[in-house]
Amino acid sequence: MLTHYKYLIIGSGIAGTTAADAIRQHDKKGTLAILGNEPHRLYSRIVLSKPEFYEKSGAPNTLFLKDLGWYPRNGIDLLCGETVIGLDVGDNRISLASGKIIGYEKLLLSIGVQPNPLPDLEPAEARNILYLHNLDQANTILENIRGRETVLVVGGGFIAIELCDLLTKLDKKVISVISSPRYWRSTFDETSSRFIKDALTRNGITIHTDSFIMQTKGKSKIEAAIIRNKQTGEETTVPCTTVIAAIGTHCALDWVKEAGIDCNIGILTDERLKTNVPNIWAAGDCAEYFDLISGRHIKLANWTNSRAHGKIAGVNMIGESSSYRKTTFYSTEKLGLAISFVGDTSRLGKDKRTISRGSYESHAYAELRVRGGRIIGATMINMANELSSIVSLIENEIPMGKHLKEIRDPHFDLKSLLTHENK
Amino acid sequence: MRTNKYTVRIDKEACIGCGVCNELAPKIFTSDNEMKSELRQDAEIDEKLLLKAAEECASGAIVIIDNETGEQLWPKND
């Protein structure tokens, strides 16, 4: 039997749930369902990388962000544990692996991203590799590290650093393996990377750069990993009890592309988060949206952005025409460093350049991304107190003009650029 | 911040600045220079909204203590 909803949201995370909330603010009656492949209602992914989650056996009371009654109270059907296998944009219906077919009038794709699997391992070895992306994976890590002391973390980006910080706080011995010569290379320059490397070392974490795991030893449980250095060819056997990989994410877009929805690394949308197909929107980590501030399509994967996306997509699904124009940022305090990202942080782009502010020696450093004489994004280490100024400079499109040299000096007050005439 | 009933503080280390508290209860919360949550000096505490903001905070950064019992109402310690 075909079930039909006026609003169908695929993805039960923060983008999808916020969209449902936004729809219900305006349309109390239209039938609405949130469909998720996880067996859970909305929970905080941020909590999964906090020690409390593990210290409280996976059940801190800050984990779930909606009580079970919130969904029926708001007339929302929460369809958990369902996997979409097909989308027919002609007949406005989706097919599920469970055999069900659901029709929709308006559809939101907030399907998130998946962690990249660790390559080069035999299937039997790959099964023992853990990931920290969702609640079930966090619970697996919880079970796995209980009573075990040495954890090897593969990867040099955001989640990997969070894991190193978390495991250190949980008194585990941590070994960090990265395939590149330095940390967070896709986003950070050498100075920023140095902050991370030195913070890891200060926290007692053993580092293997330019290296990858060739093989793991142990059958049902890992006993060691064989690491190969790409530069020297040297192979080292590292005793460890757990291996967690955090080497980036990707969007699983097969059925989305097959349906005729334009995709690149994510689902392409305009600034209203609308796809090329009528009555279908995309929001959150999976959306590669047209960013009005940078003037190009970008894809961000962070909580703040996903939540803001959900709100815009929700109101647009009820018939408004709101544009997403927001400088999103994300701040985290890990390994004794205050790390912030704001706006377009990518180092790539021919017409873009980076201006350094501060230095390693002064323990505070920012990489300001500049295009067309304006700041369009930044990465910041121990400079969080300037975050609001940088957000304002980006959002108000303040031309740096003659100040481009001065902003290198951390004593130059960025707020002074936010004068009345500049705004 | 101390009201008649509650003592409220923001765990700045935990806060990621997502702005959900500010959105739900703009008369209680604002943002500081780091874009993190901050209690308004002139906050008008609506208890229902305060608790809702705390419960919907994804980083558990809003700490609420009952003045009478001294019990931490959020995040719960159990």
Topology (SSEs and partners):
The complex is a heterodimer of chains A (423) and B (78).
Chain A: E1 3-10, H1 14-26, E2 32-35, H2 51-55, H3 70-73, E3 76-79, E4 84-88, E5 93-96, E6 101-109, E7 114-115, H4 123-126, E8 129-130, H5 135-145, E9 150-154, H6 158-169, E10 173-177, H7 190-202, E11 206-208, E12 211-217, E13 224-229, E14 235-239, E15 242-245, E16 249-250, H8 254-258, E17 267-269, E18 280-282, E19 287-291, E20 296-299, H9 303-317, E21 329-334, E22 337-343, E23 352-359, E24 364-371, E25 374-381, H10 387-395
Helix pairs in contact in A: 1-9
Chain B: E1 6-10, H1 20-24, E2 29-31, E3 37-39, H2 47-56, E4 62-66, E5 72-74
Descriptive report:
The complex is a heterodimer of chains A (423) and B (78). Chain A has 3 domains: 178 residues, FAD/NAD(P)-binding domain (3-Layer(bba) Sandwich); 130 residues, 3-Layer(bba) Sandwich (FAD/NAD(P)-binding domain); 89 residues, 2-Layer Sandwich (Enolase-like, domain 1), CATH 3.30.390.30. Helix content of chain A is 22%, strand content 30%. Chain A contains 10 helices and 25 strands. The longest helix of chain A has 15 residues. Chain A is globular and about 60 Å long. By secondary structure, chain B is an alpha+beta fold. Chain B has a single domain, classed as 2-Layer Sandwich (Alpha-Beta Plaits). In chain B, a hairpin with a 5-residue loop joins strand 4 and strand 5. Chain B starts with 5 loop residues before the first strand and ends with a strand. The mean pLDDT of chain B is 91. The chains are: A alpha/beta (423), B alpha+beta (78). Chains A and B meet through helix 9, strand 21 and helix 10 of A and loops of B.
